[in-house]
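Q: what sequence does this backbone want?
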């Protein structure tokens, strides 16, 4: 039978489109894929499960990263395990990229994901796509490389602010110490003058008594009485000076206490800013681990940088700023929870807030971006429903991550 007699035989056979496995991709892209799309904790889990031998007994983050990259293309079991983990973790992004055809469509989709901050999932979806070319993969590598520089610059700016606060605190403490030393010196000097005047007065009184026994020296008694009056007047003046000095001392001591209180407040703010910065760096290190290869220190974190696990909890966030909500939602969902929001009564009714409490497992609210009425209502409803009540110190991302850590630890 010829091809003209059977139409099915005349059509060319087209092989099904298949995504690339990790070991099938050029190993020059393995660092970008593994560092961006997998966390350090996930790499440790794969290495432990497969019994991968490292050079050191206690390997650091960089050694784990480079060892897994090295074995991804040389050890088939390691490559399969990493490919399976990448596919399972980024299934949603892979499914979104699956219908795309051609390098141009993939490039447009990658730009959109980069703008939205969905770098980790989009990286693997693009790198493993059947239509991905070396040119497109090189472009993805360059975008992620520059993004790591931008994140490092932002972190260094935050550290400079902290150092400036520490220097200002040290200056305030030195100023208070100098004022206290000056006040102590002045008080000591006044006390010495008062003691000398009292001694002089005692001497004059003793002399007056001695002269008083000389009844025939009336003129001398008048003179001594006049001297005694002057001494008493001088004592009164010096006593008044001492009272003024003591009042000034008390005032300066009150100022010193106020400065101590302000210093403590500044120290608390510095500690909180450090905690928020550490939480932000940990979160960025979990998603932008290529910074380890760049040497900026963002990836050098310990096991405390592991992903938050909300265990399916529903997080109700009341108030806040609209531009932060997509980031908060993404953090909660990536931590295994669900996110709901109420604006605190600005546009939504408070009746809807009551209905949201039924399925919420924890309630968060930013203390700097919620009305007093909403604050009181949320506290009352939390007591009524026996829900955890977690205030967020500021409406920024770092404070929200700290609050989520509190919920995850409960």
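A:
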């Amino acid at each position: 039978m010829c091809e003209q007699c059977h139409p099915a035989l005349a059509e060319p056979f087209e092989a099904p489109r298949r995504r690339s496995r990790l070991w099938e991709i050029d190993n020059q892209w393995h660092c970008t894929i593994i560092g961006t799309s997998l966390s350090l904790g996930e790499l440790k889990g794969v290495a432990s499960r497969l019994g991968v031998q490292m050079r050191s007994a206690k390997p650091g983050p960089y050694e784990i990263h480079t060892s897994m990259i090295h074995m991804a293309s040389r050890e088939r079991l390691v490559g399969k395990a990493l490919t399976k983990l990448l596919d399972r973790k980024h299934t949603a992004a892979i499914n979104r990229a699956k219908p795309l055809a051609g390098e141009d469509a993939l490039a447009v989709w990658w730009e959109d994901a980069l703008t939205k901050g969905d770098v980790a999932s989009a990286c693997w979806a693009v790198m493993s796509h059947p239509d991905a070319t070396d040119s497109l993969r090189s472009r993805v590598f360059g975008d992620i490389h520059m993004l790591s520089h931008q994140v490092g610059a932002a972190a260094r700016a935050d550290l400079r602010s902290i150092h400036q606060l520490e220097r200002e605190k040290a200056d305030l403490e030195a100023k208070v110490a100098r004022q206290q030393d000056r006040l102590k010196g002045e008080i000591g000097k006044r006390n010495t003058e008062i003691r000398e005047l009292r001694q002089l007065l005692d001497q004059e009184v003793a002399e007056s008594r001695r002269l008083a026994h000389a009844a025939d020296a009336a003129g001398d008694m008048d003179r001594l009485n006049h001297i005694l009056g002057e001494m008493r007047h001088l004592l009164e003046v010096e006593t008044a000076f001492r009272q003024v000095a003591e009042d000034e001392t008390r005032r300066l001591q009150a100022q010193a206490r106020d400065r101590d209180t302000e210093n403590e407040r500044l120290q608390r703010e510095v500690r909180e800013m450090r905690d928020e910065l550490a939480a932000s760096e940990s979160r960025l290190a979990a998603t932008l681990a290529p910074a380890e290869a760049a040497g900026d220190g963002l990836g050098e974190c310990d096991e405390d940088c592991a992903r938050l696990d909300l265990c399916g909890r529903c997080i109700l966030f009341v108030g806040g700023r609209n531009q932060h909500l997509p980031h908060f939602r993404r953090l909660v969902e990536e931590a295994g929870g669900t996110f709901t929001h109420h604006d605190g009564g600005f546009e939504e009714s408070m009746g809807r807030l009551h209905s949201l409490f039924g399925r919420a497992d924890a309630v968060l609210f930013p203390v700097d971006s919620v009305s007093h009425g909403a604050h009181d209502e949320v506290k009352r409803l939390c007591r009524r429903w026996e829900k955890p009540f977690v205030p967020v110190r500021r409406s920024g991302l770092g404070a929200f991550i700290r609050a989520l850590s509190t919920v995850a630890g409960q």
